[in-house]
């Protein structure tokens, strides 16, 4: 997103995550215009330091479903961010919260669909074995 | 009543035990296998193993027919979401959530999770009650009704001792409702003269505490010794 010219701000509890952001970059994350804040997503001070108040899009993609769902509702209700997306691994809850008006992305669902498609196409070819393929993304809102 | 308690820590386990003793039907849900096995030795079929933030675990526990869900895990996000799902998806009448970190309380409010109970807040209240330097003690918060009832001890440096109640300029949105003196309570009249050692009870709109402290607290000439 940074390369496409968007302003991107990352919030993470772990200061070391900053290094991961710079993997494959020719310049530092900050030199490219990125922002990085260390803090917990449930702390409003940290969210504000990361610039949530002026954000057009908020993405919650920590490794915890519950954290993501809570933080995205805070972004929606307290900060009224226009577009909020939560990563939710549990397909059942991803579906229910989606119906409640929270935009959810469920990597588990995506993986299942891809695997299924792979199996079907392998079966279609008459092959007895199939390799699974799944896309995975890692990013902190 | 059928009550689901989530989290079999010290709070959840004892709560479940008390509720069972009172004759309620209880399911206690615990997601740590070892803890579950320990608690299960005593509570047997009243304990269920699983992560209650997953919908099927709640459904297996019979949330559709539950009258009340109490979430007392050590994780605030879990407690919030379990209660939110109980209330909004399964239409459970009553929910109670435990707040572990008092700073998260506003998030509970934001998501409509009421009532929420914070042990830290309760201890602070007790502390305020036991330590008179805190001056003003919250006795009751009626959040829905937007009213609070507070208690205040008049110290010897209070600016109002020796004055008639009728002469006090009570802040707008506050009312003196009772005076406790030498262990006895009475409703003051305009002619009541306040004395050192009186405890006053007042009802007020939220946010008026500071105005009231300024009036009943130490005389502003003599430096402010009131903390909190």
Report on the structure:
With 141 residues, chain A is of the alpha/beta class. Chain A has 5 helices and 5 strands, in the order E-H-E-H-E-H-E-H-E-H. Chain A has helices spanning 17-21, 44-49, 65-77, 91-99, 107-124; strands spanning 9-12, 35-38, 57-60, 83-87, 103-105. Chain A has a 3-stranded parallel sheet. In chain A, strands 1-2 form a two-stranded parallel sheet. The longest helix of chain A is centred in the last third of the chain and has 18 residues, at 107-124. Chain A is globular and about 55 Å long. The two termini of chain A are 12 Å apart. Mean pLDDT of chain A is 88; it is low at 132-141. Chain B is an alpha/beta fold. Chain B has helices spanning 10-21, 33-43, 55-60, 76-88, 105-110, 119-130, 209-216; strands spanning 2-6, 25-30, 47-49, 68-71, 94-99, 116-118, 136-142, 147-153, 174-181, 184-186, 199-204. In chain B, the strands form 2 sheets. A 6-stranded parallel sheet of chain B has the order 3-2-1-4-5-6, with helices on both faces. The longest helix of chain B is centred in the middle third of the chain and has 13 residues, at 76-88. The radius of gyration of chain B is 23 Å and the shape is elongated. The two termini of chain B are 41 Å apart. Chains A and B meet through helix 3 and helix 4 of A and helix 4 and helix 5 of B.
Task: Explain the layout of strands and helices.
The complex is a heterodimer of chains A (141) and B (228).
Chain A: E1 9-12, H1 17-21, E2 35-38, H2 44-49, E3 57-60, H3 65-77, E4 83-87, H4 91-99, E5 103-105, H5 107-124
Chain B: E1 2-6, H1 10-21, E2 25-30, H2 33-43, E3 47-49, H3 55-60, E4 68-71, H4 76-88, E5 94-99, H5 105-110, E6 116-118, H6 119-130, E7 136-142, E8 147-153, E9 174-181, E10 184-186, E11 199-204, H7 209-216
Parallel strand pairs in B: 1-2, 1-4, 2-3, 4-5, 5-6
Antiparallel strand pairs in B: 7-8, 8-11, 9-10, 9-11
